[in-house]
Amino acid sequence: MQPNHLVTAAALGLAIAASHASANTVLRASHQFPGGQGDVRDEMVQMMAKEVANADVGLEIEVYPGQSLFKAREQWGALARGRLDITALPLDYASGRHPEFSATLMPGLVRNHEHAQRLNDSEYMDMIKDVIQEGGARVLADAWLSGGFASSEQCITSPDTVDGQVFRAAGPAFEEMLEAAGASIASMPSSEIYTAMQTGVLDAANTSSMSFVSYRLYEQVDCLTQPGDYALWFMYEPILISEQVWQGLNEEQQTALMAAGEKAEAFFAEEAAAIDQQMVDVYEENGVEVVKMTEDDYNAWLEIARETSYKNFAENVPNGQAIIDAALAVE
C-alpha cells in the first residue's frame, strides 16, 4: 500500500472510532465526596461507570466528584429537572422540597447495618421511593451509612453533653433533637464541616463514618463518638438517576444501569461495617479520644427524639405517621 493510502486508511479508522465514541450517550454523575481517595460513595459511582462501559450498550458515565459539577444541595433540584443525570446523594439534603425524606435520617430509626438491609425491602422504603419517583428521580443503588458525633469541646455521650455547643446536624430530625438538648444549630453539607470547625463556626458535628474519614475531621476535633452497639445516626445515601434521563434510555441501557447499581449496592453492603472500624482506627492513630454511648445514653436521646423529631414528623409531614409506623414495623 502506498504511503498516502496508509494515511487515508488511518484517518478513516480514526473517523470511524470517533463516530462510534460520539454515538455513546454520556451521563454526568455528580457527588460531593472526595474522588479517588477511597470514599465508598465515590467508589460505588466509579464502579457503576466501569460496569456500564463494559456492558457495551452505547452508554458512558462521566464522574464529577467533590462538588465539581454541582454543589451538594443543588443536586436534587438539578436531577429532578433533568439538568443532572446521576448523583450519589444524602437524601435528607432534599427534605426542604420533600419533607418525607427526613425519615431517612431519623434518630434511632435504623439500629444497625443488618437492620438497614431489611429496611431496603420494606413497605417503608417503598413509600420513600414513591416520593423519590414522584419528585423526578429513581433509585439505582441503596446505601445506608452509619455515623457518629465529634467535638472540639467535649465528648458527646448523654444529651447534656451537647448543651451550649454549636452543632452541625445533617437534617431537620437531628437538628430538632439536638436543639431540645441545648445545642445551637448551624446547617451545612458535610463537605463544609472542616472549614466551619477550622474557623470556629462549629464546635461539633454529626456525619457518616465515611465522611469523618474522607474530610479529615480528625484534624479539627478532640473526641469522637463512634456508632458502637448503639448507633443513633444512620443516613440513607442512594445513587439516583433523573427520571427524565431514565425515560430517554433504551431498554438495554436501563438494564445495564440496574445491573451496575446492583453490583455497587452489593459492594457497599460488604464494606459498610468495616467503614466504622476504619474511622475508629484513623481517629485513634491521630490522637483523638474515641468513646461510645451507653444504652442509657442512647435511650435518653431516643426519649428526646420521640418528643421532638418523631412527633413533628408525624404531625407536619404528609403521611408522616404512616411512614414512621412502617419503618418501626421492620424487625
TrEMBL record:
Pfam families: DctP (PF03480). Belongs to the bacterial solute-binding protein 7 family. This is TRAP-type C4-dicarboxylate transport system, substrate-binding protein. One of its GO terms (biological process) is transmembrane transport. InterPro entries: DctP_fam, TRAP_DctP_sf. It comes from Vreelandella subterranea. It comes from the Bacteria. The keyword Transport applies. NCBIfam families: TRAP_S1. Gene3D superfamilies: Bacterial extracellular solute-binding protein, family 7. Keywords: Signal, Transport. Residues 1-23 form the signal peptide.
